[in-house]
Design goal:
Elements (H helix, E strand, L loop, with lengths): L14 H4 L5 E4 L1 H8 L1 H6 L26 H6 L8 E5 L9 H14 L9 E3 L4 H6 L2 H15 L3 E5 L2 H6 L3 H12 L3 E4 L11 H13 L12 E6 L6 H6 L4 E6 L4 H5 L6 E4 L2 H15 L11 H15 L3 H25 L4 E6 L1 H13 L3 E7 L15 H9 L4 E5 L3 H11 L3 E4 L5 H6 L4 E3 L8 H16 L2 H10 L6 H4 L6 H4 L8 H15 L1
Parallel strand pairs: 2-3, 2-4, 4-5, 6-7, 6-8, 9-10, 9-12, 10-11, 12-13
Antiparallel strand pairs: 1-11
Helix pairs in contact: 7-9, 10-13, 14-15, 14-20, 15-20, 16-17
């Protein structure tokens, strides 16, 4: 049995310890699955990385070109609860993402039929004197200001690298203010250095919600309510679940505090991506008795069929599901056959988060799009339930075949350049737009999937195919960019075939490029 999630402590256990998460690896999906030992890790208490049950080792590089942090993920989760306030107990620089997330939040509200409004995020603006003398009173004042100005139903308080360094006692202050104000005041431990991968920030927000918002021992059960753990995507789950006479409770983003509280009353929990949903879904089952739907993610025919059947089984609606599946197959297959003709001979590349990438590759292969390569920003050898039915990488290999050039790299542009040169795709699917300009400089159009639900379910196969055709129509624009834009890399890296050479030989960082090239030529000559 998997280790039970501990909600008695304020800090979430980081992914490296819980799941053995890694952020750098190179090989095939079959090799990665074999080394991940999903079955063994699901049956035994989990360890961390190579020190635990997982045999998977990282290719740790000597530097990081760019990424995001756990605190930013808290910003885009807790900061997106409609009637709550998020306080960033941090220097003002940590609030730099508020502009971007405010735009996403407003668009997400409109997409779901809510009135557009701005985020309610407050930054305590720590300065040098706060780092020396502490900023407890500043945090107390910020909580009081948030309560007075916004009248929220809950207040989240996010830590930062700065507060972690000085050991600020955020938990004591939030306990004090919760008793005084009479609403949940929730500490979220999300210092950027707490975890090497930013997805731990998802878990930190969910941990706080589970501890202090979700209703314990609910007096009623809503047998037709399903928790859908998601981000800001369009409402594709309501129409699907309506065929099973089920209602959707979207969490965490764009939810109200009451909608978060009622999660314990639901009949089941699902998600569009196990990277995001794993922690909350497992905890809801373990602590609140709400079953997690353990099935492949709803991507492609095989995944969606299995997902719907398991959801119907958990909610006792088996009598409705088979007709719905048959009707949907009959409805979308002619459209998919037309898309296949138009996409014949096209090669794609996926660069997204871990489980989401597995799902997108499945959909691309349903469309007969060739996928030789992919980049995921991290890899979780197992998810929190430990159940093999959630083994998204294994499902990809079994039903759609392996991906031979499969890379794990935490949003490193210098490595993505080598991946794209290796695979030479016709297009790129991406969730994090910061990597898209590099693809354009190589003449490769990218589809930034701002609506993360675009590929979900049967309609998702059609949606993704049409999106690909749309971006391919603009290929000449990207070819023009390629002609006129210079890449920001030295010649020796542009000629480099191994994107992980610096992880294997970190001493090269200090080598002279010309000297390195001459040494390689000497070795090749000697070998010849």
């Amino acid at each position: 049995m998997p280790k039970k999630i501990n909600l008695d402590i304020a800090s979430v256990e980081q992914r490296e310890q819980r799941l053995g998460t890694i952020i750098a690896w190179d090989g095939t999906t079959e090799e990665l699955h074999k080394q991940s030992s999903y079955e063994l890790r699901g049956q035994r208490e989990r360890g961390a990385g190579c020190g635990g049950n997982c045999r998977l080792c990282e290719l740790s590089g000597p530097f990081t070109q760019g990424s995001v942090c756990s605190e930013q993920m808290v910003e885009c989760q807790a900061g997106n609860v409609r009637d709550a306030v998020l306080i960033q107990h941090a220097p003002i620089g940590c609030g730099g993402g508020q502009t971007v997330y405010n735009n996403i939040y407003r668009n997400g509200l409109v997409m779901r039929g809510y009135k557009a409004e701005n985020l309610r995020i407050i930054n305590t603006n720590l300065i040098e004197s706060d780092m020396v003398f502490g900023a407890a009173d500043k945090l107390r004042q910020s909580i009081d200001d948030a309560f007075e100005r916004c009248q929220p139903q809950a207040i989240f308080v996010a830590s930062s690298c700065a507060t972690g360094i000085i050991g600020e006692d955020i938990e004591s202050i939030t306990d004090e203010k919760e008793a005084e104000l009479g609403i949940p005041v929730i500490p979220l431990a999300c210092e950027g250095f707490r975890s090497k991968h930013w997805s731990t920030g998802f878990d930190a927000t969910q941990h706080g919600i589970l501890r202090q918002i979700v209703r314990r021992n609910p007096t009623k059960k809503q047998e037709d309510l399903v928790n859908v753990i998601n981000l800001w995507g369009s409402d594709v789950f309501s129409p699907m679940l309506a065929h099973l006479n089920l209602r959707v409770n979207y969490v965490v983003d764009l939810a109200s505090v009451e909608e978060l509280a009622q999660m314990s009353e639901a009949a089941a929990t699902v998600g569009f991506c196990y990277t995001l949903s794993s922690y909350m879904a497992a905890a809801l089952e373990q602590h609140f008795g709400v079953p997690e739907v353990k099935a492949p993610m709803p991507y492609g025919f095989a995944g969606t069929d299995a997902w719907l059947r398991e959801l119907a089984k958990v909610t006792h609606r088996e009598h409705l599901v088979e007709k719905f599946i048959a009707d949907e197959h009959a409805r979308v297959k002619p459209k998919i056959e037309e898309l296949k003709k138009k996409l014949k001979g096209i090669k794609g590349f996926v660069a997204t988060g871990s489980a989401y990438a597995h799902g997108l590759i499945q959909v691309l292969r349903e469309l007969d799009v060739e996928v030789d390569g992919s980049l995921t920003f991290h890899h979780d050898p197992v998810y929190d339930s430990g159940d093999q039915r959630e083994d998204s990488l294994g499902h990809l290999n079994e039903h759609y075949g392996q991906v031979k050039n499969f890379h794990v790299s935490n949003r490193q542009q210098y490595q993505l350049y080598a991946f794209l040169q290796e695979n030479k795709p016709d297009f790129l699917l991406i969730r994090h737009n910061g990597l898209a300009p590099l693809a354009s400089r190589l003449g490769i159009p990218a589809a930034p999937l701002g609506d993360e639900h675009i590929a979900v379910g049967y309609d998702g196969i059609v949606n993704l195919g049409e999106t690909i055709l749309e971006i391919l129509a603009h290929k000449k624009f990207h070819d023009d960019i390629k002609k006129h834009v210079k890449l920001p890399y030295k010649k020796w890296w542009l000629e480099q075939k191994d994107a992980y050479i610096l992880a294997k030989h970190p001493e090269l960082v200090n080598f002279d490029a010309e000297e390195y090239r001459a040494e390689q030529e000497r070795k090749e000559a000697a070998h010849a």
